[in-house]
Amino acid sequence: MKPPPTYTINRRGFTLLEALLASVLLASVIVSITTPFTAGAGQTLQDRKSTMAVALAQEMMEEILSICNQPQMTVDQGVVPRPTFTTPLHYDNYIENDGGIRNSRGSIITDPLASGLSRHVNVEYVTVANQRAEDHHAFISISVVVKQYGQPAVSLTRLVYTGLGAD
């Protein structure tokens, strides 16, 4: 009679379970290592968009203030296209929607960081404490709001002395 055959287990490779477990472990390590980098990249993009929003608000405010500093400032409130705005009040309720934001020379800003941004301007006469009644056009409030996808991102407001005093 022959002795029963002996089987030897050849352990030269990994079992399917071991390979699966190693893959899961490797994937979890990769995710934990790369998560801060992807979050950082996303935050960097948001920071760059915020910087763009501030720059757009400042540019519009400076454009309006440059008109305020000119001696021909008048109270005219007619509707005039922006490149020919001659008074701060021409900017009242001025809106530039996403894809239509223009620089001070009238060119559309094509920077990808400006996508999703819009600018809104409000200009109105205001009265300050102890202001004389005859000087009702002496001060204007200028507000520039840059919105990102419809939500306010940046808001700048200035109180400006017009020097107009009584009409």
Structure description:
The structure is a single chain. With 167 residues, this protein is of the alpha+beta class. The chain has one domain. Helix content is 32%, strand content 20%. It has 1 helix and 4 strands. Strands 1-2-3-4 form a 4-stranded antiparallel beta sheet, covered by helices on one side. The longest helix is centred in the first third of the chain and has 53 residues. The relative contact order is 0.14. About 6% of the residues have low confidence.
Counting helices, strands and paired strands, the structural category is: alpha+beta
Strand order of the largest sheet: 1-2-3-4
Largest sheet: 4 strands, antiparallel
What form results from the Cα inertia axes? Answer: rod-shaped
Notable traits:
4-stranded antiparallel sheet, 32% helix, 167 residues, alpha+beta, 1 helix
In brief:
This protein is α+β, with helices and mostly antiparallel strands and 167 residues long.
Can you lay out the helices and strands and say which pair or pack?
Blueprint: H1 16-68, E1 95-96, E2 117-126, E3 139-148, E4 151-161
